[in-house]
Amino acid sequence: MKRTGVVRFQVFLLVVLAGLLVWRAGRGPDRPAGSVGLAGLDQGELYSSGFRVETDGRVRIEAAGSVEQEGDDVPVAYPWILNALDRSVAWVATPDSIPSGGTLFAVVDTLSLAAGEYVVWFTTLGPSSRSRSSRGFLGLRHHWTNDAADWDFQLSPVDSIQISEVDLS
Predict the structure, then answer these.
(1) Is the pLDDT of residue 61 over 50?
(2) pLDDT band at 100 (very low <50, low <70, confident <90, very high)
(3) CA-based angle 90:163:44, to the nearest 5?
(4) Is residue 140 a contact partner of residue 35, using CB atoms and an 8 Å limit?
(5) β-strand partners of 37
(6) Alpha carbon distances (Å) from 109 to 6, 65, 94, 140
(7) What is the structure's pLDDT at 31?
(8) How many CB atoms lie within 10 A of CB 63?
(9) In this predicted structure, what is the pLDDT of residue 109?
(10) pLDDT value at residue 34
(11) What is the pTM of this model?
């Protein structure tokens, strides 16, 4: 019996299925509806995303950034939120705690926002281009740019407010 056509079709389906699984795994988790996020950030960049808050309410912010070196408390890769109308600072990341021996910090915060449009910015530029490239002798010292895979920002509603991403460029 010749079943080569059936076998080829089954192999084709397996390859397509494997491709779809790899594609889905590479996309990462979906964001919940009504949330704003930045992830997959590289060093030496400035990222932004606009969003609209329909009614006054509270939001939850979860973010991760970096300080330049162990013992610092000044962020060099971090997010902040500006009011899009008057460019006033609505929120800026400040490290809650920094594990000893590391440069990565996490922030979990709640914020009351008035209805309006906002822009979240995330800088990974560091204090200078020299800081981004000075990784120490043979990379023996942990460098803040090594945290890039963990940098992210997530904003989600706490109250029953409506949040939607908008293009404010």
Answers:
(1) yes
(2) low
(3) 55
(4) no
(5) 154
(6) 57, 14, 10, 34
(7) 46
(8) 24
(9) 93
(10) 62
(11) 0.74
Distance CA 153, CA 122 (A): 8
Interatomic CA distance for residues 24 and 19, integer angstroms: 9
Residue 123 has pLDDT above 90, yes or no: yes
Alpha carbon 26 to its chain centroid, in Å, reads 15
Please state whether beta strands 104-113 and 75-83 pair in parallel, antiparallel, or not at all (unpaired): unpaired
Rounded mean pLDDT, 116-127: 93
Q: Using 50, 70 and 90 to split pLDDT, how confident is the model at 156?
A: very high
Residue 8 CA to residue 2 CA, distance in Å, equals: 12
DSSP letter for each residue of the chain: ---HHHHHHHHHHHHHHHHHHHHHHHH-PPPPTT-EEE-S--TT-EEEEEEEESSSEEEEEEEEEEESSTT--SEEEEEEEEETTT--EEEE---SB--TT--EEEEEEEEEE-SEEEEEEEE---S-HHHHH---GGG-S--GGGGGGG-EEEEEESSS--EEEE---
